[in-house]
Amino acid sequence: MPDFVKVNYHQTGQSTSTNEFGMREMQERAYEARDARYLLLKAPPASGKSRALMFIALDKLINQGIKKVIVAVPERSIGNSFRATKLKAHGFFADWELNPKYNLCTPGAEGSRSKVHTFKKFLDNDEKILICTHATLRFAFEELEDEKFNDTLLAIDEFHHVSADVNSILGELLRSVMANSNVHIAAMTGSYFRGDSVPILEPGDESKFTKVTYNYYEQLNGYNYLKSLGIGYHFYQGKYTSAIMEILDTDKKTILHIPNVNSGESTKEKHNEVGFILDSIGEVEQQDPETGVIHVRRHENGKMLKVADLVEDNQADRDRIVNYLRHMEDVDDMDLIIALGMAKEGFDWPFCEHALTVGYRGSLTEIIQIIGRTTRDSSNKTHAQFTNLIAQPDVADDEVKLSVNNMLQHSLP
User: Fold this and answer.
1) Domains and CATH numbers, the chain
2) Is the pLDDT of residue 98 over 50?
3) Computed over its alpha carbons, how large is the radius of gyration of the chain?
4) How far apart (Å, rounded) are the C-alpha atoms in residues 95 and 135?
5) Average pLDDT of 228-232?
6) pTM for this entry
7) 10 Å Cβ neighbour count for 168?
């Protein structure tokens, strides 16, 4: 299906080239602001925010008197972006080293008693770095005095999850530790707005932050391989499953987000929807018991595809496939990921060529995050694509196209 909107980029290589410290253009810009007590980094998905945080955090630990670093991410799968990383080999003065015991983005309930206990223990020992989910951070905060965050860098990834609303625990945490401790804060986001009318920060709090901005045009124009990005839409009538195979190109590395079970687009039987999609693609031959990867032999030419089902409810099964996805390194490791609420933000699959999502999205932030799954620079692709499969409304077709066109034009990076 042709793209409705298409933008070409210059392929200058500038945003992916590195300086003598191993920093890309955005990371170097962020590092220049490393002395700021409160830092707000606004940069697109796939621009390298996690490594930028490593550079800044290590400088604060080694040169600025900070004793501990806490990195909080919205979901466990994103924690892999902050795994141990060799930085000295590329010219930096220290490596990002992490004790696995204090990586709390591991299987198990987020915010569980054991993880909160480990979080509290971390604050009282000599360990330097802890990775956790927003949920674990919130649960721990409810049991801690603000002073426990003294001499700590608190890094909040996907900062748009914070809210100025009085009922937001994450927002209250931020306001409280800013007022009652000497904490340093690094806030990182690809889209500094929410899907509602509530601001992320009150103006008075926001004014305290040093802001570093790197935009989509700088990033994508500076890639080596990615030449263009397209956005398209497709209408269907009846059930979306009747139209999905018109859009799903299994020759492309794809993330497919099926609709929320509470939405009008859903059939209310999410597992049946996944089964229908798999059967439409080909014959399921096996599911690897160790990795959870589903092997599907395609109908038309017999090609074997590797599929990940993130819609699965069983925690152990989902943990297996999530762990596999976290350690993918080769273009042939995966062909299709089917998801519901996961793999929208912070999920790293550089080889992804197509993000296909069913139904209207909750906000422009969600659209930008999903588009960002395709916009990593990789030698397997020159074109990235986002497609929205939408139920045909009961209005004139020209009105629908105009409305969708306006939405897509404003969301296109």
Assistant:
1) 17-217 (3.40.50.300), 225-411 (3.40.50.300)
2) yes
3) 22
4) 27
5) 85
6) 0.75
7) 17
| Residues 307 and 321 sit within 8 Å (Cβ to Cβ) | no
Phi-psi region for residue 71, left (φ > 0), alpha (ψ -120 to 50) or beta?
Answer: beta
Query: How far from each other are the two terminal CA atoms of the chain, in whole angstroms?
Result: 20
DSSP string, 62-116: HHS---EEEEEESSGGGGGGGS-B--GGGT-SS-B---GGGB--SSS-TT-HHHH
Q: Is the pLDDT of residue 413 over 80?
A: no
Side-chain half-sphere exposure of 347, counting CA atoms within 13 A: 24
Are 77 and 326 spatial neighbours (Cβ–Cβ below 8 Å)?
A: yes
14-18 contact pairs (CB < 8 A, 24+): 14/221, 14/222, 15/47, 15/218, 15/219, 15/220, 15/221, 15/222, 15/223, 16/222, 16/223, 16/224, 16/377, 17/222, 18/90
Q: Supply the pLDDT for residue 399.
A: 53
Max distance between CA atoms of the chain, in angstroms, equals 65
Q: What is the C-alpha separation between 247 and 232, in angstroms, rounded?
A: 10
Res 161: pLDDT: 79
For 267-289, how does the pLDDT look when each residue is reduced to its tens digit (9 = 90+)?
A: 889 999 999 999 999 999 999 99
Is 255:348 a contact under the CB 8 Å cutoff? no
* pLDDT attached to residue 128: 98
Amino acid at the residue 339: A
- Amino acid making up residue 87: L
- At 412 the pLDDT is 47
Tokens of 164: 């100025």
With contact defined as beta carbons under 8 Å apart, do 119 and 136 qualify? yes
For the beta carbon of residue 33, count every other beta carbon within 10 angstroms. 15
Whether the Cβ atoms of residue 62 and residue 129 lie closer than 8 Å to each other: no
Distance CA 203, CA 200 (A): 9
Which residues 6+ apart lie within 8 Å of 204 measured at CB? none
